[in-house]
Amino acid sequence: MAVVVAAVLAVLLTSTRLGMRIRAVGHNIDAALMAGNPAERMNALVFAMGGAAAGLAGCVLTAGLSPQWTISDDLSAVRKFSILGIAVSMIGRHHPLGCLAAAFSISAV
Fold first, then answer.
1. What sign does the dihedral 91-93-99-105 (CA atoms) show?
2. Residue 13 and residue 19 in contact, taking contact as beta carbons nearer than 8 Å
3. Tens-of-pLDDT digits for all 109 residues of the chain?
4. DSSP 37
5. What residue ranges do the domains of the chain occupy?
6. Interaxial angle between packed helices 96-108 and 76-91, expressed in degrees from 0 to 180 and rounded to the nearest 10
7. Are 91 and 72 in contact (CB under 8 A)?
8. Is 109 in a helix, a strand, or coil?
């Protein structure tokens, strides 16, 4: 599923008009506003897409487990994933396919 999501995001960001607008707002918000790109809408869309991807990644941790896991167990192991996710994103240079390669290489270690 991660490979499919990364491929879809890579195509979306590199080959569509929406992806061009997202990249323009990400690179220089002032220039994007001058060009007529709705920066607030693009930011909200990117946050929604990131939240959906994080939800897909998080469902793997809790799928099939009892509901008491989130209440009774210590969540220190889950908190470590956020720091690892930031490292994967930086190693992958914030590109979906780069993050996929970085995640596979880090998980192999």
1. negative
2. yes
3. 888 988 999 999 999 999 999 999 999 999 999 999 999 999 999 999 989 988 887 787 667 666 655 555 666 666 677 788 889 989 999 899 999 999 899 888 7
4. -
5. 2-108
6. 130
7. no
8. coil
